[in-house]
Amino acid sequence: QTSLKDAYIDAFLIGAALNEDQIYERDSEVDDIITSQFNSIVAENCMKAENIHPEEDDFFWEEADAFIAFGLKNEMSIIGHTLAWHSQTPDWLFVDENGEDVSRDVLLERMQNHITTIMQRYKGKVKGWDVVNEAILDDGSMRESKFYEIIGPDWVEKMFIFANQADPDAELYYNDYSMAIPEKREGAYALVKGMQDKGIRVDGIGMQGHINLDGPTLEAFEESLLRFAELGQVMITELDVTVLPWPGTEVGAEVSMSVEFQDEFNPYRNGLTPAVEAHLHKRYVEMFSLFHKHADKIDRVTLWGVTDANSWRNDWPMDGRTDYPLLFDRANKPKPFVQEIITITN
Ligand code: G3I
Predict the structure, then answer these.
(1) Distance 88 CA to ligand 1 centre (A)
(2) Residue 289: how many CB atoms within 10 A of its CB?
């Protein structure tokens, strides 16, 4: 039986994000899925600043080293995620010993050190890096993060310059979510185009694929894919399809989960209904059909996890949610549509 990675061998890489569980706990069934179906891996959490660089003079390498070793052993294309992100970044980066914001120069120096130290450790082992993650808001403007506040609007290009200096041979990507929103598409396009016009190397754009059953539309997603392909390679990153209703709060807001809430916002804790299953099936097949149609423009399609059991979607934006966003189920079995995704390439 053909695997996913073999089916798409002439199209694009098929990747999976690995988290703590899969990096540390060797479960032979899950390992089998990872090594037989995927030819690329990305670090779900272990390379984020908070994890890998918790204090100024303290890098925590153990988990990232294990992640890299696993990828090398299995001859996979290894992707680093992520060097500069407003979230999951430790506070020490932005403040001095009095708790005041550091100057632009100090933050730039700290980020250069952060980026250089990490990239050089894994030089020759990592194919490419999500250098900057999520710097643009849905309306296309720049996110007013700490990086933006302290460094200014040129903060993104500085990160790419540092990354290029640290490892001229690694691919460098800009990665963001909701990239099918027209305003965001144009904001991200302008950001990357602006850097490239100045001679700053950005090799590709990662379109995160945290989608739901109905949105974004295929047309909007396709339009962004084609637009970004004008600038370099496109990666479909962080693909997963939530089947759950959105609680209607602001993204990232704390939501407490009362019993009522559980009923309303965790409707499939005992399994999917056939109708939802069919919808998920259709959604995955139409997405992969779109990717395959544009295989000449796509370098990699990466799922944000391996099985439903380990997906971040289960507990977000509130604990206790049961989601079914990935290609493999909680019993480590491929979902029925995996076979159909494979046959798209015939
Ligand atoms: O590992 C600790 C554990 O020791 C501790 O007991 C537990 C208690 O909170 O936390 C665990 O860490 C959590 C980690 O996931 C591992 O499960 C963090 O709190 C939690 O914040 C972290 O969430 C990750 C999130 O990014 C924030 O970094 C998700 O797993 C990860 O899937 C998600 O990924 C992001 C991408 O990087 C960027 N794009 C959006 C995407 C989804 O939010």
Answers:
(1) 8
(2) 13
CB 101 within 8 A of CB 150: yes
State how far the Cα of 137 lies from the Cα of 176, in Å rounded to an integer. Answer: 9
Q: Is the CB of 312 under 6 A from ligand 1?
A: yes
Domains and CATH numbers, the chain: 4-343 (3.20.20.80)
Backbone angles phi, psi at 42, to 5 degrees: -135, 150
pLDDT digit string, tens, across residues 251-299: 556 666 677 777 788 999 999 999 999 999 999 999 999 999 999 999 9
Closest CA to 45 of 81, 84, 91: 81
How does DSSP assign 189-247, residue by residue?
A: HHHHHHHHHTT----EEEEEEEEESS-S-HHHHHHHHHHHHTTSEEEEEEEEEE-SPP-
> Ligand 1: which atom is nearest the Cα of residue 48?
28
CA distances (Å), origin 48, targets 190, 202, 218, 259: 26, 20, 31, 34
- Ligand 1, residue 82: give the atom nearest the CA: 37
Q: pTM for the complete prediction? A: 0.96
Q: What is the DSSP letter of 287?
A: H
Ligand 1 mean position, distance from CA 342 (Å): 30
Q: Of all atoms in ligand 1, which is nearest to the CA of residue 17? A: 32
Catalytic residue status for 238: yes
Distance 194 CA to ligand 1 centre (A): 32
CB-based contact 19:310 (threshold 8 Å): yes
238 CB under 6 A from ligand 1?
yes
Q: From the candidates 44, 63, 134, 157, which is the catalytic residue?
A: 134
What's the pLDDT tens digit per position in 74-111? 999 999 999 999 999 999 999 999 999 999 999 999 99
Interface confidence, given as ipTM, is: 0.94
- The Å distance, Cα 312 to ligand 1 centre, comes to 7
